[in-house]
Each structure stands twice: as C-alpha cells, then as structure tokens.
From TrEMBL:
It comes from Pseudonocardia alni (Amycolata alni). Signal peptide: none annotated. This is Patatin/cPLA2 family phospholipase. A motif (GXGXXG) lies at residues 45-50. It comes from the Bacteria.
C-alpha cells in the first residue's frame, strides 16, 4: 500500500512536541536532558522560502521549546535558520528575511548572465551577518547544541555533513559553501586545508531535508520544519517547466539544474515523511510541520510583504501544532 500523503500542516507523531514541552518544564539547559531521548531539529531550506522556517524557529524560541533540541540539521537556508537557533537568535532571524534579504542588494535577477551572481553571498556574509545579525562563527566550535550542515561535493555532487569544525573561519566557509550555486549564488567554496580541503556547493542540491541522515545518526525524535505547504509538496507536476537558471546549470554540469530545484528534491523525501512504517524510520518518532497556507514566496522572492507573511505563517503553524499537543 502506498504511503499516505501529507495532508495537514502538522503530520506525524505529536510525541515529539510533547517531549519538547516536558523538557521545557523541567528547566534543564540544552544538552543536559536525562530522559534517554535524542531530539533532532531538521530545518528545510529553499532560498527565501526559508522565511517560513524562520518563523517556525521564532515560535519555538518564544515558546521555550528550542532549548529541548539536542542537535540541528540543515542545508542551504535551513542551515542558516538552524544556526540562528543554536546561537540563540531564533527571535531575530525571521525579521532578517523581511528586512535585509528581500531586496535587490541580496537578490537581483538582472545580474543573471553577468559576472556577478544573482544571489549575493557577499551581501549576506559581509553586511547582514555583520550588521543586522552579528554572527560570531567561533561560537559554533563548542556550541550547546551540535550543528550539522549539509553541503554537496562540487565534483561528484554527493552530499556531505560538516560538523565539529575546528575554528570560526572554517565554520564561516562551510556556511558559505552550503549556499553556493555556480551561476546563481557564486562558485564552489573550499572548506578545510591541506589534503583535507574540498570544494563544496549548496547542500540542498544533495539533500534539501536531511531527515534520513538524522535518523541514521541515532535521533530518536525528529522535528522537521518544511518550507513548502503540503499541497505544494504533493502537487508538483512531473512535467513542470525547468526554469532558465536551472537549464543553464545543466549546461554547466549535466543533472545539476534538476538537483538544484528544491521542489523536485523535497518530493523525493515524501515516502519517509508520510509513512510511519517506512523502514528508515525504525520506530523513531517523526513530526513534520509545513506552512498552513502559502504566502506566494519562492526561492528568489524580494517582496518584503510576502516574506513577512511567510514568517507569520510559519510562526502560526507552530502555535497551532503545539496547542493540541499540550492538551493531549
């Protein structure tokens, strides 16, 4: 029997939220829980769609549930939102999408085909993460909650997980790598030094929602924050037109354009997300939260109003999911 499709904003096992609430109520600090469970937060990406996830992280922080997470996983925009939670910036990150990222300084389609990338990672790292959301990358060397960043090998297009990196400079390079796409957001980024150095590109090319990786790594509970509505995930037409930028990537490296389209890649995760009997679940508790309604935001959106609406929808999605969990 085929797995059931995702049919609501909250889909799966509410025990994940109940455990987060029990942990909050004990008052223990992050990483010092004594219940034998291991809760992984997996944050979806998708460029400006990350504003949905940012709103969700904002709500988790406001509700005091973020402190109950044992580890964070993410790629591309999901890695940045997850980093904000790890650093205690969960309340600020949703505002950054609207205020600082929904603008032509960060995303300008007119730059496509020029020598400058359409998405300016320089603006993100040298302006936004310095002035608007000051980020001390050295804090990730020994964080209260481990951060696992997915990147994609530039040569073989296979995903890798970067974690427990030795210094702030390496963490900064890893975060830039997980957002880099040739022609779209800049060239591959070298992470590491000497013989261990490797060139990486956007992590969502290889794995946009690393739920399976978190489960294989030993998570007993997974909370996955999606950046597409349930209808969007299940209604992607197989013959959808490939955008120009993706066709250009395919000319650069056959297959890269398709892999870089997060819609198709997220669709590949559906069987694991929707089927409680999926063999990769192995009895683990899995809850997915997807936006309760669309805000008209896509990966390259620069409309501040829509981006702000997406963050509000993400926030409301968590509130609506936690209310029945608390009453259960």
């Amino acid at each position: 029997m085929p797995p059931a499709l995702l049919t609501s904003a909250a889909h799966g096992d509410a025990e994940v939220l109940r455990l987060l609430e029990r942990r909050r109520d004990t008052g223990r600090r992050p990483g010092r829980h004594a219940d034998g469970a291991r809760i992984a937060l997996v944050v979806g990406g998708g460029g400006m769609r990350g504003s949905y996830a940012a709103g969700m992280v904002h709500a988790l922080s406001d509700l005091g549930l973020a402190a109950g997470v044992d580890e964070v996983w993410g790629s591309s925009a999901g890695a940045f939102v997850g980093t904000a939670l790890v650093m205690g910036h969960g309340a600020e990150v949703s505002r950054v999408f609207e205020r600082d990222m929904a603008c032509r300084e960060f995303i300008d389609p007119r730059r496509f085909g020029t020598r400058r990338p359409m998405v300016s990672l320089d603006h993100l790292f040298d302006r936004i993460l310095v002035d608007s959301l000051p980020t001390d990358w050295s804090r990730l060397v020994d964080p209260p909650v481990p951060l696992n960043v997915v990147v994609t090998g530039a040569v073989d297009l296979r995903p890798r997980v970067l974690t427990a990196l030795p210094d702030g400079a390496t963490w900064r390079a890893a975060m830039r790598a997980t957002a880099a796409i040739p022609l779209l957001a800049g060239p591959a980024v070298r992470v590491g030094s000497g013989e261990d150095a490797e060139d990486f590109i956007d992590g969502s090319v290889g794995d946009p929602l690393p739920v399976a990786r978190a489960l294989r790594d030993g998570a007993t509970h997974v909370l996955a924050l999606l950046t597409r509505t349930a209808d969007d995930l299940t209604g992607i037409p197989p013959d959808a037109r490939t955008p120009l930028w993706a066709r250009s990537l395919d000319r650069l490296a056959p297959g890269l354009g398709r892999m870089a389209q997060d819609a198709a890649r997220h669709g590949e995760c559906l069987p694991l997300l929707a089927d409680a009997a999926h063999p990769d679940r192995a009895g683990a508790h899995l809850l997915t939260l997807s936006p309760h309604s669309p805000a008209g935001v896509h990966g390259l959106s620069t409309d501040p109003g829509r981006v702000a609406a997406a963050a509000r929808i993400g926030y409301e999605t968590v509130l609506s999911a936690t209310a029945p969990a608390a009453a259960a």
